[in-house]
Write a structure and sequence with these properties.
Largest sheet: 6 strands, mixed
Radius of gyration: 23 Å
Shape: flat
Number of helices: 14
Strand content: 15-25%
Length: about 375
């Protein structure tokens, strides 16, 4: 199972430039990694993780395989999408299927690019898009709640449980608050109901402030407004220059990329920041398998137990799970590999209730 982020934004904010940079990066990586099938609106890119290189160096792994994250370019959004304007329905169908939303906001003035609203104001733009998404959620919920209320009156337990989430969500949306504002107050069961409702505004959001080339390193007053908005919502924002990203993406060698970026006062591509922040918003953890053939990173949702992690590698591993031999990343490094960790008593035998920790190095024992 893959995890994905949908990229949204109003026309002419740099969304397509950013997505093209992602797909160019994905295409360049496809030569090295398996599963890089690229559909027209999907790019799958590696998650940068320096831990992987360090593990591979210790184990003398012949090959390094990073974990990947998928990005989906969601068709452009216009005012009235919730009522089926423009690409409205297609837009909503696509966005319902992603795990998180990356919202690109224009934070650059001037240029030949005219803004769809006639002036540059990223906060207004964010609210335009958010309003459309809230209207779409509200419309869908109000249609469904009537039926659910009828069923609940007949004593249907499942419907009654759904209402404990549906009704507060309707109240929040009517008050102009996205459904995700309810999440911190919900228990695990209600969070699950919220997930089943597939509300677009319940998905985690990451803001990307697209600034001009001169502001790439430090950002500007507009991107600071976006950062402040993100902070009040308990999320984060990333500053990038989409035009620079597309130039970096087509450079052949890592040395060229580094040189080009440092000439602009940048340490790494902005894409790396987006990928890492997207990964964090999705609340994922990385675990590793390490051996002479390959060092590989894998992804599982936070809170997953060891058999689920084993199943990410192969369904047989989950089905016949016996135990997981586990070394924490820091211990693997400190003990200079598996043998050292075993000697130091840092290799643990964990059973099926063990919750995966970020950075765990696993060797699964299974029997099918």
């Amino acid at each position: 199972m893959g995890f994905n982020c949908g990229i949204v934004g109003l026309p002419n904010v740099g969304k397509s430039t950013l997505f093209n940079a992602l797909t160019a990066t994905a295409a360049a990586q496809a030569a090295n990694y398996p599963f890089c099938t690229i559909e027209p609106n999907v790019g799958r890119v590696s998650v940068p993780d320096e831990r992987l290189e360090k593990l591979a160096a210790i184990a003398g792994s012949a090959k390094i395989v990073p974990t990947q994250l998928e990005f989906v370019d969601i068709a452009g959004l216009v005012r009235g999408a919730a009522t089926g304007e423009g690409l409205g329905n297609k837009f909503l169908a696509h966005i319902r299927e992603v795990d998180a939303i990356i919202h690109v906001l224009r934070c650059f003035e001037g240029g030949d690019v005219t803004h769809v609203e006639g002036s540059v104001d990223p906060i207004r733009d964010a609210e335009t898009v958010e309003t459309e998404l809230m209207l779409a959620d509200l419309d869908g919920l109000e249609k469904r709640v009537v039926n659910t209320q009828k069923k609940a009156k007949t004593g249907d337990k499942e419907s009654a449980e759904q209402l404990t989430v549906m009704e507060p969500a309707i109240v929040a949306l009517q008050a102009g608050k996205p459904a995700r504002t309810l999440l911190p107050g919900l228990d695990a069961e209600k969070k699950n109901i919220m997930r089943m409702l597939q509300l677009v505004t319940s998905k985690p959001v990451l803001y990307v402030a697209n600034v001009g080339e001169g502001d790439a390193a430090k950002g500007n007053a507009l991107s600071e407004k976006v950062a402040a908005k993100a902070k009040t919502e308990g999320t984060e924002s990333v500053v990038i220059t989409a035009a620079i990203e597309s130039e970096v993406a087509v450079l052949e060698s890592d040395a060229d990329k580094k040189e080009f970026l440092s000439s602009l006062g940048l340490e790494e591509p902005g894409l790396n920041k987006i990928i890492r922040a997207g990964y964090k918003r999705l609340d994922l953890v990385t675990f590793f398998t390490v051996g002479p053939k390959e060092a590989r990173a894998w992804t599982v949702r936070r809170g997953a137990a060891a058999p689920e992690a084993a199943g990410v590698i192969h369904t047989d591993f989950e089905r016949g799970f016996i135990k997981a031999e586990t070394i924490a990343y820091a211990d693997y490094i400190a003990c200079n590999g598996e043998a050292g960790a075993r000697e130091a008593g840092k290799l643990r035998q964990e059973g099926k209730d063990y919750i995966v920790q970020d950075g765990d190095v696993f060797h699964f024992r299974f029997n099918v």
